[in-house]
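Researcher: If convenient, please comment on what follows.
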Amino acid sequence: MVAFCVQVSCTQESPVTEPRQQEIVPGESGTFAKGADVSWLTQMESEGLQFTDKNGTVTECMKLLKEECNVNAIRLRVWVNPAEGWNNADDVLVKARRAASLGLRLMIDFHFSDTWADPAHQQTPAAWVDYDLPQMKTALSSHVKDVLSKLKSFGVTPEWVQIGNETRTGMLWPLGSIDNGDNYAQLTNAGYDTVKDVFPDAKVIVHIDSGNNLGLYTKVFDYMKNKGGKYDLIGMSLYPETGKSKDYVRECVSNITSLSTKYGKSVVICEIGMDYDQPEECRDCISSLIAKGLETGKLEGVFYWEPEAPAGYNEGYGKGCFSSGTPTVALDAFKD
């Protein structure tokens, strides 16, 4: 692999900054992704949280995930205009450049909101609330282009880009609701086309939750088929309940086979997580999902959601898999 450096001046609006010059180390594009979403990382660092290896040595989190957990890819969420700055375009750039300097591949996850987007929350950014469909498509496209162009200017190339986060009910409500004609598909296509304009080889993902529930997926992807929605990969979230992980894996793998057969698309698990106090079950769950998913020939990767988060972080997240800043055995599944 050949590493190269880029020098581009940039005004950082992130709450943190990175050196203006960083070496870019190409990752192993196209191999199975063993990933982690660490979007909270810069915020955690600003709060004084640290991460340590098995010997107790303080280590930068992404470096730790790569060296001790065999993580080869990073996922980062993007908010449009978040109140405190975290997850805005420039904060994402800081983390993306750091990942690229470590040879970690990159997934960019556009929420198209100023805050969290999920099946129950697809709040339109405050600056876009009065837009009609043509204006909303333009705003979405401009936002995607702005973020991706910032990455490109620093030599950072994402392998995957999500257009929306857990969008089984649509996005950018109420205009982009799945029940509002073909608006959701048109908005998705506006994002898809913009991604391809900036990074033609990036794989565009439509991502929804509950990877063990086939009916949710057939509703969304039948809609995409009927309305002309464009995407390259099906993205899933999967959060198994304690004691039921084998059932979740069995159902999820069955769905991967069914969906890939019906729609001709492969699948990536964009988010997975289990209760922080069940690391062994979590490890076995992910190991089984990877092994059985690979047998289908249609699973391209698995990303753990915020593994570095301490128990109860950010108003109660309890599915991290570090203990006192050090990885537990949960991510040993990525070492196989």
About this structure: The mean pLDDT is 94. The longest helix spans residues 133-153. The longest strand covers residues 266-272. The chain has nine helices and twelve strands.
